[in-house]
Amino acid sequence: MLNTLIARTLPMVPKSVVHFAAKKYVAGDTLEDAVRLVRSLNEKLITGTMDFLGEFVTDRKQAEFAAHMGHEILEAIHAHKLRSGLSVKLTCLGLDIDDEFCYENLRSLVFKAKELDLFVRVDMENSPYTTRTLALYRRILEEGFDNTGVVLQAYMRRSEQDIKSLAGLKAPVRLCKGIYREDPAIAFKDREEIRENYKRLLTLLFENGMHAAIATHDDPLLDFAREYIAKNSISKDRYEFQMLLGVRENKRDELVREGHKLRTYVPFGSDWYGYSIRRLKENPEVAGHIMKAFLKGE
Ligand SMILES: Cc1cc2nc3c(=O)[nH]c(=O)nc-3n(C[C@H](O)[C@H](O)[C@H](O)COP(=O)(O)OP(=O)(O)OC[C@H]3O[C@@H](n4cnc5c(N)ncnc54)[C@H](O)[C@@H]3O)c2cc1C
Q1: Domain at 30-271, CATH from 2.60.40.1730, 3.20.20.220, 3.30.565.10, 3.40.50.300
Q2: Is the CB of 265 under 6 A from ligand 1?
Q3: Less packed terminus of the chain by CB within 10 Å, N or C?
Q4: CA end-to-end span of the chain, whole Å?
């Protein structure tokens, strides 16, 4: 409880203090750092999805740079023969600037990825962007690209409807709980309610023959997924598990040993702060250690 309160005050702690705890969630500042990390994951039979950190970009040049970095990532994956895809946030590609501009940035990445036989996942951000993210994603699918997937959040009340409307397009969906602060009018808030919705949505994905990326570290959900997969003989080409870099590595390795496909989300870049604060808030124990170090002047 105390640590949870501390976690909420983290934004007041200087960046330099947060940095030492945040490091484990981020591959490093450069693409070379991310390449090195994904290579080490591949050696453990784990695939990656690389993300150049940044979000809520309002400067056109910055969004163009993010798109350029996306291209660099795809080329690096290809050149180094890595088993990895690319994850992108649409506000990083200019969704706050202009939808059409953002679409062109996204399209050029999916096009390039298609040429290289690679996959692009469109992350889901907070609710003001949900409808527009899905609209741009749908446009990409309707253009005929089959190398791209999207993310839906189990805490959002609308997600069931979103799955149903994407089912006809056989869209690959990464299902996560959701990380942003949302209003109870549009989002489930209770931990158990979110879990129950996650189970319902995962079942719906499988029943609709959609590819499911099961993005969670939560034991009851992992157990539910494993049981469902075994009971319904879901083949390996229809699902994978996904985890975040630096989170529950023992569990990750256990899933790999059991023979499941496992992908790790590998963020990198100097814009690590917002991403890491969200991760630290999910891990109040570490947040407590940071605050103690800060107060002791370490
Ligand atoms: C691959 C991937 C991609 C994602 N993409 C998105 C996205 O596009 N949009 C979005 O809104 N959210 C995204 N998320 C985040 C997600 O919504 C959750 O916030 C996050 O995964 C934590 O939820 P959980 O299901 O693991 O359950 P939780 O109940 O939060 O965690 C279960 C257990 O995992 C461990 N754990 C969880 N987080 C941490 C941490 N940071 N540090 C240490 N231990 C931890 C703890 O032991 C905890 O008890 C993504 C998550 C993953 C795994």
Answers
A1: 3.20.20.220
A2: yes
A3: N
A4: 24
For the segment 135-182, what is each residue's pLDDT rounded down to a tens digit? 999 999 999 999 999 999 999 999 999 999 999 999 999 999 999 999
For the Cβ of 225 lying below 6 angstroms from any atom of ligand 1, the answer is: no
Q: Is 156 in the pocket of ligand 1 (CB under 6 A)?
A: no
Domain positions in the chain are 1-26+281-298, 30-271
pLDDT tens across 1-43, in order? 555 666 667 777 777 777 777 788 999 999 999 999 999 999 9
pTM (2 decimals)?
A: 0.94
CA–CA gap between residue 26 and residue 37 (Å, rounded): 10
Cα 112 to chain centroid distance, Å, stands at 21
